[in-house]
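Hey,
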Amino acid sequence: MALETKLAEDIRSAAKQAGLEVTSAEAASGFNGIPTAKFTLALAGDPAKTETLELSEDFDASDARLSAELSKYLRENAKRLRNPRPDCYVTLGGLPVSFRSWQWPFHLSTSGADTYIVHGDAFLEDGHTAADAQLRAKVSASMTVTFADIVPAAEQPFAEAFIYNAVRKIMDQGQIELVKSGNRQPVPVTTRYYSSKQGKFVFNDTTHDQRQDYLAAKVFWLSGVLGDGRPVWLLDPRDAQYLNTTVEELKNNVDAIAKDGLIHLQQDTEFAVATDALMGLRLTYEEELAEALAFTKPTFNEDMRGGHTNM
């Protein structure tokens, strides 16, 4: 049965303004039976492109403290949905990964710890492994109740970006393992990822060259390998946060690799496809993937190195 509540009405209105359509809205339940409202959002004019938004049942989307950030989240997702695989990202180390089945919103830890938890999966997307054989990490991402004070709400629109970036950062550090099966692995989001002085999350300090390499790898994997040559969005604020830069600087990096002949910019210049020159580097990118994957493999004391947990 379609959900007809003030929250549903507010989400429909905000989605429409962002270029999205709510194709379904229903009452649901999150982890431990938390009452939620679950929405399927589709790109206006392309109903095949969808994403799921799940909020606490009592979330107030009209609250002035939250509505602006919610609108920004929806606008960004409208652009992200134009990607061939909106669920896919790339790590600095060279791993193409997808994020799936996240159980929003956060829930308080069942272990009694003063911690908010959200569960989800990250899959390795190499473009040729069968779906039932893909390597993945079952993730238990956490933040302390005290740390949560800097987040407007412990809900998907306000945390999805920094949670995904924290997972990517942990992968870069080799502290999470991609396996065929296994227990949940912890990804703690702590103050080390947040600069109170700057008032923002900080995951990686990157150089101009590193950002160019990252963007080229993103186009190679998400357009050339996983996207059948279709355009990908290169000015994603999530990447700017992950790389500790600005969208404006990302644009400079994009222009540089376009001049190098590695990508072909689309008419709006925010999206690009891989050129033959970039796809000719397949062996290099596959070697980087293999090295990054090997770096995540435990070499001693597997339980400690893999950080396995049953949270």
